[in-house]
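assembly run, all chains below
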Amino acid sequence: MDFILRLGAVAAALAAAATMGTSDQTLPFFTQFFQFEASYDSFTTFQFFVITMALVGGYLVLSLPFSVVAIIRPHAAGPRLFLIILDTVFLTLATASAASAAAIVYLAHNGNQDSNWLAICNQFGDFCAQTSSAVVASFVAVVVLVLLVVMSALALGKR
Amino acid sequence: MDFILRLGAVAAALAAAATMGTSDQTLPFFTQFFQFEASYDSFTTFQFFVITMALVGGYLVLSLPFSVVAIIRPHAAGPRLFLIILDTVFLTLATASAASAAAIVYLAHNGNQDSNWLAICNQFGDFCAQTSSAVVASFVAVVVLVLLVVMSALALGKR
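ok done. output:
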């Protein structure tokens, strides 16, 4: 179960990184006020998102052997402790990048009147759709990581 | 140790909520393009921040008795499991609000050229300073919560 959830989290994290990393839209027309291209590296937050999600995906791949060891030897505390501590750290990292990207995506969709930031999704529809799905995938990874930490804690408690 | 860290996290979370909740600045002059008032409820993300940080602070206060029970009875797994699972959930909540508020504060400081969002901190200096310190306080709470989860895991593993 731990192993399968971990595989799911790997898929979600890498999908999020890849979707965000390939987001790029050039507009076919000219307007007076807007630039003509939007890509993930226009936004520092989205760059952070791609790097963090790739890191989380890489960590989860490397954690698979430890998960196997924890399943084979359910009474050894070492591998479980190792997994729960690193899972918590990477959960925090994944949550931080997912939430900050979500804040930017929300702004892109709705804008903000008081600071005079206009919504850009009318212009950059495809870009917005792609970054939104990356954010959704990253939240799937976050939920799976929370489940992994809770399951590891329960397994440690039962011992 | 668990108890003292928890008290620190309570202070950090409530300070973050209070600092953000009282952020409000009205400009003494008129300009053509900008509104004249900025407060935390101009931004959905900051509203979310105040609510979540208050929730996290409230949970941490309620968790203090369980922390005492876990210290008095170090061999009982129940209270420790209860604490580690809820700590993980509230850690995720706190990280999400801290990171999304940080993304908005970063935009307020630096703006974003490609989407034509201008930095507003030149106009709203006090507002920016206050929201920035709220974000710093919330990250202190996040770090303390990570430490609490790791310490609970180690205590569970030692049993």
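The first helix of chain B runs from residue 2 to 21.

The longest strand of chain B covers residues 24-26.

not gonna interpret more than that til we talk
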